[in-house]
Amino acid sequence: MAHRGSSGRTVALELEKRSGIALHRQLYEAIRSRIVDGSFRGGAPIASTRVLARDLRVSRSTISLAFEQLKAEGYLDCRRGAATRVCAVLPDRFHSVPASSPAPNAGVHRAVASARAARVAAIPRSPDITGSPPRAFRVAVPAVDTFPVDAWGRILARRWRRTPARGLAYGGPFGHLPLREAIAEYLATGRGVRTTADRIMIVNGSQEGIDLACRVVLDPGDEAWLEDPGYFGARGALTASGASIVPVPVDAEGLVVARGMRVAPAARLAYVTPARQMPLGVMLSPARRLELIAWARGAGSWILEDDYDSEFRYAGRPVAELHGLDPDGSVIYIGSFSKVLFPGLRLGYVVIPSSLVDAFGAMRHFLDYSSHYLEQTVLADFMAAGHFERHIRRTRSVYFERQQLLVNAVQRELAPRMTIAPSDAGLSLVGWLADGMDDALAARMARRQMVDVWPVSAFSARRLAPGLILGYAGLSDPEIRDGVARLSIALRSTAGHIPGGCACESS
After folding, report:
1. Rounded CA gap, 432 and 452, in Å?
2. Residue closest to 382 by CA, chosen among 431, 427, 347
3. Could you give the residue ranges of the DSSP H alpha helices within 313-469?
4. Is residue 375 located within the same domain as residue 413?
């Protein structure tokens, strides 16, 4: 549409308010293209911000933003009390600027991402749920509604008031010493991990810890065991490091160590989740633990122990960690506060064998150097005041009740299409689907019902029994019940896609 003002050149433009492109950017592009292609010649006046705002039905500030950018780039001459005009002489570099964005296939840049990056991009990963409300049955989402926000806020305010100037400078690669000391004490009493603060590194979540460990101990082409099915975050880090991934199956006792020793006896690294296998939830048996330690010692290899949520054990004390069987030998131990406190905290830690401390420090220096100082100090105070362990005790009780509710609802509403059993630990359960059902299809149908689930098949390249991973920790009782009802609709829809199945089959 052509817009006419009282004076000055006008712009033939219809601003698209729902395009996702800022309005001032659309106007900037339109005027610039007309100047570059000669439609608006040097010295020509441009309609005023008032006239353009009226004709385009936008605020004058929107017009001013576009004008300011064009002035900064040398396209417009804007002077107070005078008409805005196209600059008489454009800088040479602007004459080659295209009038508009090139067509999708015109002049495509020939450089592409590395083959390694392409392999990483093909690995399943969690969707971006920034700012979205709780939704059944997202995995690895803790109960943020139970977090003591007021206590954290008081500590945060006090810490910020008392932060010295040096606290605003760069921190060290290993992190805030009082926090490392608090973690060492907590691990000794609650996790069976004996270590000292000088062997603990604070990282930005367990994923960074996994990535950092892979960078330190692996060279491109080195073999690395990965549980099958296994955590795709570890698969991503191993792939990014250039490792040759060796899938090792998991059974009711956890990682089948004998199989790993048979197919890749000289592997450089074994990634395991022994306290609660991700995604199946089984625990690595005592015999397998000893077998794994013996293999690592004999092969001169490393074990990367990811202890991502074992604080939440509902029956008995937490199982002693692999690290406790080999406290300063082959085990690199990783823990996280994201699932224990709240995901946005993005703090975790690595317990490093003494022989690797210098290598971890050097690698961290060139990765991201350090973690956020203020969050580390607040967490250290939070732990010292006893809030941390009180929060774990409180949420452990809440999660147990929510798990019971989920199990009862699934058994009542989803049988025989899904079977589920309670677990004595964790934040999620596997709901096993009836024979012949497709868990990937079931997950897609669930998304249509506004339910998020991960199919077990997404964690493995081999054919497995079909199942869906159901997170329950971050959901209220009504949300769990509603999620099961919606999942029931999804599973009935899935049945219509199974040979011999019937979409109208009774539940």
Report:
1. 16
2. 347
3. 357-365, 373-384, 387-413, 439-448
4. no
For residues 378 and 473, state if they share a domain: no
Q: Whole-prediction pTM value?
A: 0.77
pLDDT digits (tens, 9 = 90+) for 225-280: 999 999 999 999 999 999 999 999 999 999 999 999 999 999 999 999 999 999 99
Cross-strand pairs, 255: 250
Token reading at 105: 């296939």
Do 171 and 320 have their domain in common?
yes
Burial 327-361, CB ≥16 within 10 A → b, else e: beebbbbbbbbbbbbbbebbbbbbbbbeebeeebe
Stretches where the chain sits below pLDDT 70 are 1-13, 18-20, 90-111, 129-131, 316-319, 496-507
CA atoms within 13 Å, Cβ hemisphere of 292: 31
Alpha carbons 282 and 343: distance in angstroms, whole number: 24
Residue 132 domain-assigned (yes or no): no
**Within a domain: 300:** yes
Q: What residues make up the domain containing 18?
A: 1-105
Decide if 307 contacts 334 (C-beta within 8 A).
yes
Please tell me whether residues 303 and 357 are part of one structural domain: yes
Residues 167 and 78 in one domain: no
Q: How far is CA 306 from CA 231, 248, 321, 439, 500, in A?
A: 10, 16, 10, 26, 42
Percent of the chain that is helix, strand, coil (3-state, to 5): 45, 15, 45
Indicate the burial class of 314 (C-beta count within 10 angstroms; 0-12, 13-18, 19 or more).
Answer: middle
On whether both 225 and 330 belong to a single domain, the answer is yes
